[in-house]
Structure formats: C-alpha cells, structure tokens
Design brief:
Strand content: under 5%
Low-confidence stretches: 4-12, 16-23
Distance between the termini: 50 Å
Shape: globular
CATH topology: Cytochrome Bc1 Complex, Chain D, domain 2
Order of helices and strands: HHHH
Largest sheet: none
Number of strands: 0
Helix content: over 70%
Mean pLDDT: 81
Number of helices: 4
Structural class: mainly alpha
CATH architecture: Orthogonal Bundle
Amino acid sequence: MQRVALLFAALVAAGAVSSCLFWREDPDVRMKQEILYQALCTSCHPAFEPRLFPDSKWQSFIGDHAHVAGITPDEEKTITEYLTRNN
C-alpha cells in the first residue's frame, strides 16, 4: 500500500512539474498588456516592437520613462512584463 501511495505521489508531482513547464500565458492577459502599452506609450512616441531590445534594456527604459509619462507602478510592471515576455 505504501508503494502505491508513493507511486501516486510521484506521478502527481511529475504532472505538476510538467504542467508548469508547458504553461502558456493567457491570451486575454497579453491583449490587455498590449492595449495598455499602446495606450500609454504611444502618446509620446511610436510603439516599439518588443523584440527591439533585450529584457534589461526594456526594464531600464520603462523605469526611466515611467515618471515622465505619469505611469503608475502597476502600469509600469504590466508594460514591462508585456515587453519582456514578447521580445
């Protein structure tokens, strides 16, 4: 009986790990992030393609410009996530 319980626990753990590895972002979340990016960032400049810069550059760029654009910390986080996940 202990063997069966141990085997079951191992299978459950393996399933949890594999589901994390193959997790995909919710398309609605991505769309909301993109809409926010387009709405807030294009008031000063054209929207840049996320692939234009590496993560570190986006993080620095958004951090430097958030106060100028009047972006809240939550909006800054959302926009940074959008740009870094899609580059």
